[in-house]
Design a protein that fits this description.
single chain; alpha/beta; 6-stranded parallel sheet; 3-stranded parallel sheet; 15 helices; about 50% helix; binds manganese (II) ion
């Protein structure tokens, strides 16, 4: 389904005078601080976050999955759902596919459909963490690290096939996340497993088109519970460094042990030009797949503070990172969940742009932690929601995306079209 632009405009018109009043006030407050409000609004309009195809259905745990109805059953439906998100938020201008869950049947038709929704194809994702029907060899004991060369070759070939689909659709990057590892001490030779993984990745890297990037994701545990081959940013960086100039580390917020200083990892990787991509979510205990900013919005702000610092640094050799939401929980309507995540990401980005970097640097040089904290929290405690709303309004999105989603009864429409029992492919 598509939303009639007139319906969004009618809802916006009802809220317009309140919005103008809030924006005028904020513009005055920020003007006194010397902030270029229009510059921030323009940057927000240009900031686009990819939505992964697997986040559009209700997620699950190993205990249960509770479908919400109207879920997208085909790739075309998934593109339509991201189109809805993008229409409302104007900040979800890309979709990230997962092969084999999203193999396109008619490449040209799929490309046209995405373009008609204003969507680009972001990084493609391979899957060697589960066995597919009819698959010859099993990944039970690993894929790119497997002791058997034939299993490694099967996993390499799969990644090359993913690149082929991505290339046909216009993607420019491959994200590799591996479940490879061990659940028991002694099970795996750490050094050999790492070496075999590197060799496998080298073959995949060599198979990428020359304008493609590879993102190497890391995770400390799960589904393996004793070791993972690419456990942390150091391992990921070692691999990316050995692979070549077009290989980068990818930071997923949920792939860290509790209390890890993720903002420091971001700053360090950007310093050496190796932060390629970012996966947003939130968590309390592990890879919880919760809505971005649901639990730790200040941490998200601190991370964006480093991201903005790296992006605004004219001497930085880090490429513009690929942004993606990577979350799929089992309670909320997935589209509302994603709208909330998009809002949280944009909020943190806008707040980070408010940080007075010159004053912060001066406080650091003067060993003044109190002032440094004041500068950061002054930005963080500013309610920048009117800036986000204005950016959406100027781009023909909704002033209040979730409000519009509910008032336009979009989920009810989707259920009417697709049925109550549709099941989205994916996790
Ligand atoms: Mn991820």
């Amino acid at each position: 389904m598509r939303i009639d632009q007139q319906k969004i405009k009618a809802l916006n018109d009802q809220a317009l005078s309140d919005h103008r009043e809030s924006l005028d006030h904020l513009t005055k407050v920020l003007g006194r601080r010397g902030v270029d409000v229009n510059g921030i609004i323009e940057k927000l309009k240009g900031f686009q976050v990819a939505v992964p195809s697997w986040a559009l259905g209700t997620g699950g745990t190993r205990f249960g999955r509770f479908s919400g109805g109207g879920e997208p059953g085909t790739l075309e439906d998934k593109i339509a759902d991201v189109g809805l998100l993008h229409h409302l938020s104007q900040s979800a201008g890309a979709i990230s596919l997962h092969i084999p869950w999203d193999i396109p049947q008619d490449i040209d038709a799929v490309k046209q459909l995405a373009a008609s929704h204003g969507l680009a194809f972001d990084a493609v994702n391979s899957n060697t963490f589960q066995d597919q029907a009819g698959q010859e060899l099993s990944y039970k004991f690993g894929s790119l690290c497997h002791v058997d060369k034939a299993v490694r070759q099967q996993a390499i070939d799969h990644n090359l096939e993913v690149i082929k689909y991505g290339d046909a659709l216009g993607s420019k990057s491959l994200t590799v996340w591996l479940a490879d590892g061990s659940s028991f001490p002694g099970q795996l030779n750490f050094k050999k497993a790492f070496q075999r993984t590197l060799e496998s990745l080298q073959e995949i890297y060599a198979g990428m088109p020359s304008d493609w990037k590879m993102f190497v994701e890391y995770k400390p545990y799960e589904p393996n519970f004793y070791s993972t081959v690419i456990q942390d940013w150091g391992s990921s960086h070692m691999l990316a460094d050995k692979l070549g100039d077009r290989a980068y580390s990818l930071v997923d917020l949920g792939h860290h042990l509790p209390n890890t200083n993720i903002e420091q990892i971001v700053a360090t990787l950007m310093m050496v030009g190796k932060l390629g991509g970012f996966h947003f979510n939130d968590s309390k205990y592990g890879d919880d797949d919760l809505t971005v900013g649901a639990l730790k919005p200040y941490q998200l702000f601190l991370i964006f503070n480093e991201l903005v610092d790296g992006m605004e640094d004219p001497t930085s050799k880090n490429p513009y990172p690929a942004w993606m939401i990577d979350a799929s929980h089992n309670l909320k309507d997935p589209l509302e969940d994603l709208l909330q995540s998009l809002e949280a990401i944009n909020l943190a980005y806008a707040q980070a742009m408010l940080v007075d970097r010159a004053a912060l640097e001066e406080a650091r040089e003067n060993n003044d932690p109190s002032l440094a904290q004041e500068i950061l929290q002054n930005a963080y405690r500013t309610d920048v929601r009117p800036l986000l709303a204005e950016a959406r309004l100027q781009a023909d999105g909704a002033l209040d995306p979730i409000g519009a989603y509910r008032r336009l009864n979009i989920r009810r429409e989707l259920i009417a079209q697709r049925g109550v029992k549709t099941l989205s492919t994916g996790l």
